[in-house]
């Protein structure tokens, strides 16, 4: 009993429970009342570890990001792809994460999340042989692409109707594109079949490779 209660009241356990609530019900579902019910404890025990909801959201974001970027590296290109895919999948699994990352990058870039993301990518950019004067620009381009593309992918998944079949949805969109006016939308008609058959993760990684190609060139 003592061991279980100590675990339940640790900061790590509180943050873990917060992530579970965020995954289930989004930011609106993360309340101290819901947290005390999930942990079977009183609010005072939680306030001992975290001062408010904002601190709890920051801690949950930091925990998920640390897990996403903490991978063994095997060369700079593979390292960047691994970190990028880790972030892509984390944002896909945690629907609330994209918004929190945007807030972290704009509101508190001096916090722990922004440096962790930039460090995990920037080290690999440096190892690619990029001139030091271009480290920040190259790393920023990669980070903004990763978070933007991953966030859009997660938003697409959330906006789909419950139980919707992805293949059927893409097929329907593709048919609409193919029916566009050929003079006004020649490009859209030309890529309609490619959109129908694309894989989200493969497309995401292809974008990483395009940026890396430009950086290394």
Main attributes?
217 residues, mainly alpha, disordered N terminus
Encode the helix/strand succession as letters: HHHHHHHHHHHH
Q: If helices are DSSP runs of H or I spanning 4 or more residues, what is the number of helices?
A: 12
Structural class: mainly alpha
Gross geometry: flat
What is the helical fraction, as a range of percent? over 70%
Main sheet, how many strands, which sense, barrel? none
Strand percentage = under 5%
Span between termini: 60 Å
> Whole-number average pLDDT?
89
Number of strands: 0
Low-confidence spans: 1-8
State Rg: 21 Å
Describe the structure.
With about 220 residues, this protein is mainly α. The protein has helices at about 1-10, 10-25, 30-40, 45, 55-70, 75-95, 95-105, 115-125, 135-160, 165-180, 185-195, 200-215. Helix 2 crosses helix 3 and helix 5 crosses helix 7 (about 95-105). The longest helix has 25 residues, at about 135-160. The protein is flat. The protein starts with a helix and ends with a helix. The relative contact order is 0.09. Mean pLDDT is about 90; it is low at about 1-10.
In brief, what are we looking at here?
The chain has 217 residues and is an all-alpha fold. The protein is built from twelve helices and no strands.
Topology at a glance:
Elements lengths: L1 H7 L2 H15 L6 H8 L3 H5 L5 H17 L6 H18 L3 H11 L5 H15 L7 H25 L6 H13 L7 H12 L2 H17 L1
């Amino acid at each position: 009993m003592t061991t279980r209660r100590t675990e339940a009241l640790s900061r790590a356990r509180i943050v873990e429970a917060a992530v579970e609530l965020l995954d289930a019900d989004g930011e609106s579902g993360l309340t101290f009342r819901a947290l005390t019910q999930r942990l079977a404890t009183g609010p005072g025990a939680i306030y001992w570890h975290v001062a408010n909801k904002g601190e709890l959201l920051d801690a949950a974001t930091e925990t998920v990001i640390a897990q996403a970027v903490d991978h063994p590296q095997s060369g700079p290109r593979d390292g960047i792809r691994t970190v990028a895919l880790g972030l892509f999948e984390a944002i896909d699994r945690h629907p609330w994460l994209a918004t929190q990352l945007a807030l972290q990058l704009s509101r508190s870039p001096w916090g722990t999340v922004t440096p962790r993301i930039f460090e995990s990518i920037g080290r690999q950019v440096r190892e690619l042989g990029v001139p030091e004067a271009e480290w920040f620009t190259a790393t920023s381009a990669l980070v903004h692409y990763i978070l933007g593309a991953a966030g859009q992918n997660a938003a697409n998944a959330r906006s789909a109707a419950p139980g919707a079949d992805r293949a059927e949805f893409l097929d329907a969109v593709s048919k609409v594109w193919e029916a566009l006016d050929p003079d006004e939308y020649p490009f859209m008609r030309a890529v309609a079949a490619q959109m129908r058959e694309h894989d989200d993760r493969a497309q995401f990684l292809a974008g990483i490779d395009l940026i890396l190609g430009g950086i290394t060139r």
